[in-house]
Design brief:
Layout lengths: L1 E4 L6 E6 L4 H4 L8 H17 L3 E7 L43 E5 L8 H9 L4 E7 L1 H14 L3 E10 L3 H13 L5 E3 L1 H8 L4 E4 L14 H7 L1
Parallel strand pairs: 2-3, 2-5, 3-4, 5-6, 6-7
Antiparallel strand pairs: 1-8
Helix pairs in contact: 2-6, 4-5, 5-7
Length: 227
């Protein structure tokens, strides 16, 4: 349902998840519409900087020296990580979103940003209560982060068009699944998020009860558009 929301910049943080060159250029792991996702994330980042919101960048860098291979983890033929190898230049954060001084940059070895204790510590130190989340992949690292954020007591504002996955269908159904259980949080698009950052009150989508949307192949895209 649609609900009015306003955000206090003092207690709001922007969390950018895995917006790395790998998602743009990897033959197997590029994100559909990635340039659009990055463009929207850049708008959020510029607005957050102007309003002095806390900004946290995370990047997936699989480093076996820090965290050895897990059971059944996919590996390359030479035994190195199958993707997001810490030694691969493509794990760099996209140039359009290059962090600046004062913004936390945290490299992680697992899906959720909260797998690195520094993320929660940074957000708590800044007294963040709302997390504005953008990033990839929606059903994987974004979903894992959203779940851990809620469990940690943060309100989540999921910016749907500043996230992405391997296909648009994967992204949209992932957003719907997250929205169905986004307790204490909300979904909006980039335009709505920018309005909230600017200090305006806006209408966002919130779940009025657990699993309010029973979607299927026929109506998933329309339900996504209406979030």
């Amino acid at each position: 349902m649609r609900t009015p929301l306003s955000l206090d910049p003092v207690h709001t943080a922007l969390l950018l998840i895995d917006l790395q060159e790998e998602q743009r250029r990897h033959v197997h792991y590029s994100v559909a519409g990635f340039d659009r996702v990055v463009g929207n994330a850049r708008k959020l980042l510029q607005a957050a900087r102007a309003r002095k919101l806390t900004v946290v960048h995370t990047a997936y860098r699989r480093d076996f020296q820090l965290c050895p291979p897990r059971p059944f983890e996919p590996l390359a033929d030479d035994g190195t990580p199958a993707f997001s190898d810490a030694t691969d230049p493509m794990t760099a954060i996209c140039g359009e979103l290059e962090p600046i001084g004062g913004e936390a940059v945290i490299y992680k070895n697992d899906a959720s940003a909260f797998s690195e204790a520094k993320v929660q510590a940074t957000l708590l130190a800044r007294d963040a209560r709302w997390l504005m989340i953008a990033g990839v992949w929606t059903e994987a690292c974004v979903a894992a982060t959203v779940g851990d954020a809620i469990a940690g007591g943060f309100h989540v504002l999921l910016v749907k068009d500043a996230c992405g996955s391997g296909t648009e269908a994967m992204h949209q159904t992932a957003v719907l699944n997250l929205a169905n259980r986004l307790y204490g949080g909300a979904v909006c698009d980039t335009a709505g998020a920018l309005s909230l950052i600017a200090g305006d009150e806006g209408d966002v989508w919130t779940p009025e009860r657990p699993v309010p949307m029973l979607f299927n192949y026929a109506d998933a895209a329309e339900l996504y558009r209406n979030l």
